Amino acid sequence: MKTTTIDALSRRTVLGALAAGAGVIAAPALLRADTVPQVRCATATPGFTTVFYDVIRDRKLDQKHGFALGEPVLNASIGTLFNDFVAGSSDVIIASWDPVLTRYQGGVPCRLLCTLMTADMIGVIAAKGGPKSIADLKGKIIAAPQQSGVYRMTRAMIKDIAGEDIESIAQVQNADNPAQGVTLVIADRADAAVAWEPMISNGMQKRSDLGVIFSAGHAFRDKIGSDLPYFCVNVRQEILAANPGLAQKLNAAFADAVALIDGEFDTIAAQYAPRTKIDVETLKIARASGAFKLA
Asked: Alpha-carbon distance 199 to 277, whole Å?
């Protein structure tokens, strides 16, 4: 597995032409401590994305590639994650690409560095006695993290594929994160939820009659014929401008991390399950389901 460096969103992400591909580059000699770029990072919690940072730090991939990655800030609110990135409080965030694109178009100096995971992990879930399809969502309550790119992308895909705007046919209730939406369905306080792995598998472990009634990855593949890379690494332009070559170093470190996670998934899942706030067996189930794919 490897990451792919792109200056703008690629054709694979539907929005542009592939600008440049980059694999792992040879590691430079370690720099003196006072010249190594200090990189501040953040992501949302609960979820698996902190593991990419943790593997880079614990396996010293940042040192290998000539930068220092700080302790990741874990945000329970997706809105806070993006607001801090826009304000410049974080140099790097792992998140979906579409809200970052929106902020870039609004003047935020940022760049999509590389993709990590595919949209197969994203879906609309419901209980067995609830809606069975998108058409059944009419008049229902849907829990969703409305500030997330996942929600906006899923809403757009449903409108394009099924011809239904879920905000017109249903009541959408905001959730701070995907785990909260799943919890609302489990508690019968919502009829369906827009969520992603491993929170979907976690919900299924807690309530066995939960199921996916719409898969973003499957829907895109059925229509376009290819995978849709989704969660990605996004970086502020200021730190790249101040540190020539940092983009390649970051990309190489994340490529190494993806390869390690892909090759040692069970061991790494067991080690970092507490950080994800998801139990290790659920992480393994999500992986085995095929919905938890590294890009």
From this structure: 10
Which residues contact residue 286 at a Cβ distance below 8 angstroms, ignoring those fewer than 6 apart?
A: 121, 197, 198, 200, 201, 202, 292
pLDDT of residue 30: 42
What's the pLDDT score for residue 147? 85
Q: Would the pLDDT of 40 be above 90?
A: yes
| Chain position carrying tokens 């706030």 | 277
